Amino acid sequence: MWPLPLLRLFATKILVLVVLLLLSLTGSEGVKVLEIEVPPQVRSGETVDLRCHYDLEGASLYSLNWWRGTEQFYQFSPNSPEQTMVYASRGITVDRQRSGQDVVVLMNVSRASAGRYKCEVLADHPSFEKDSEIANMEVIDVPTDSPSVVLRRHQWSPGEILEANCTSPGVRPPPELHWYINGDKIQPQLSRLLTAEPRTHRGMRSRGYINGQDMIDVGLVGGGAGGDIRDDLEHDHDQSLFQVVPRTSALKMKLQSAHFNVDGQASLTCVVTLPGLYHRSAEVPLTLPGFRAAAPSQKLYGGALRHGGTALTVALCLTALKVLAL
């Protein structure tokens, strides 16, 4: 066992070494990235500001660098003859006039601009220490079109199984689709999402089918175009970043007498939403046999029959009168 004086001497030396180490660490120059500001989601076509907050801890700045993935697209070096350097990177357009040490401005972003962004700060001589932080940015190509609703015909009778498809414009991330009848939300279990292959925007058209039967593309409420929309899109596997997936919801529900008002009308609506970015709907009229279809501006719900089968009875009477008149 060591003598006590020797143990005290050893402990003192250890204490001195620890103090010297702490002093050297405290007095050293370095750099620390505190926070980077990269918006997690932006609309296609917007201008985006990227900011990097850092602490040099007594050192001088050698360079501030921005990367997207493995590609560097921006460098600010305060001591270089040309302080700002912009490097070519697909999908990234830097506004040189508005960019500098505090902010990098990206113009007209697209889905090709999405990715993992890294701010890297490098200290000057003698340490040349560096630190970095990473954040993701997703670019959403918000469509301008409305959804499209397709069904076999306009006239329906209570007791029939209504089948309809609602297809949203191509968008990433995929939106939410909900069905309503006369303003009341239809139970989600009565509809299902259909799978689709990725498509490009170019020449985007589609046509609805249910159970192998060609369907009618009816007029839309709130914008959009009808007509023949057969799917003749071109595949572009080499540009997967530009691919979009139209989402289709297939509805299958049994119609009731209470769905139709005293004029034999009902309203079927599909609502497509991307929270905070996109909200559009497509509305189609449903009409009992023997009744005239409602005008597009006419409100179809609000007087729906909740008791009895008056509308159905009137429709049957009108049909019988037509037969007797022959």
Structure summary:
Residues 18-28, 199-242 and 297-325 have low confidence and may be disordered. The chain has 326 residues and is mainly β.
Describe what you observe in this structure:
The protein has 326 residues and is mainly beta. It has 2 domains: 30-140, Sandwich (Immunoglobulin-like), CATH 2.60.40.10; 148-325, Immunoglobulins (Immunoglobulin-like, Sandwich), CATH 2.60.40.10. The chain contains 2 helices and 20 strands. It has helices at 4-27, 310-325; strands at 32-37, 41-43, 48-55, 61-68, 71-76, 84-86, 103-106, 115-123, 130-140, 148-151, 161-167, 176-181, 184-185, 191-194, 209-210, 213-214, 216-217, 248-254, 265-274, 278-287. The chain has a 6-stranded mixed β-sheet with strand order 2-9-8-4-5-6, with no helix packed on it. A hairpin with a 2-residue loop joins β4 and β5. The longest helix is centred in the first third of the chain and has 24 residues, at 4-27. It starts with a helix and ends with a helix. Mean pLDDT is 75; it is low at 18-28, 199-242 and 297-325.
Break the fold down into its secondary structure elements and pairings.
Blueprint lengths: L3 H24 L4 E6 L3 E3 L4 E8 L5 E8 L2 E6 L7 E3 L16 E4 L8 E9 L6 E11 L7 E4 L9 E7 L8 E6 L2 E2 L5 E4 L14 E2 L2 E2 L1 E2 L30 E7 L10 E10 L3 E10 L22 H16 L1
Parallel strand pairs: 2-9
Antiparallel strand pairs: 1-3, 3-7, 4-5, 4-8, 5-6, 8-9, 10-11, 10-17, 11-18, 12-13, 12-19, 14-18, 15-16, 19-20
